[in-house]
Amino acid sequence: MGKIKMVTYRSRKGWLEHRTGIGGSDAAAILGLNPWTSNLDIYNYKTGKDIPPDISDKEVVKFGHKAEASIRQLFALDHPEYKVDYKANNSWSNEDYPWAQASLDGWLTDQEGRLGILEIKTTEIMRDRDWEKWDDRIPDNYYVQVNHYMMVLEAEFAVLRAYIRYHKRGDKRIAIRDYLIERKQEEIDYLKEKEREFWEHVERKTPPALILPELKGE
Prior knowledge:
Structural class: alpha+beta
Helix content: 25-40%
Low-confidence stretches: none
Number of strands: 7
């Protein structure tokens, strides 16, 4: 794994300061699949024309940060078939994709010795129809995110653990779901090309054409 490297930073502040390339949360926006951020937003952030909004004080974000370690430990207990590794403030890179970075919630080794990604998501569902995004699948933006991570680490699979808080008959309930995503090389190749094209815009300081996410009926 000489071309694939991991560094860790002493603090979250140092980790944030070194997030200069395309990260996993940027990848879906580049494809027009992020419901909150456009590819043009990402371009403006990477070229210094704009500053990403600070969402660290939002309750859902604070909950996710506080819960991550416990969810990771529970995942390891639930799945002894995986070796689970993690280091705080990690950042991965790959010489084949110099524009790309990966910051992981964990990485896995299965019983066959294959390398995998662990991605942890905490979310809250307020409407029954929002379950559609999680029924036998994961939301598109998260799917692109784990593909980005598999690209950088050349991993063979990913597991997304979703910790879902939802309301039913006036009560707040919890659902925990695990989604196994096997590597599909054609999707990795497609993402690689789209990220490479986007990064050329960043390097040339020429804005890409705006891609808006598909609007779905309410």
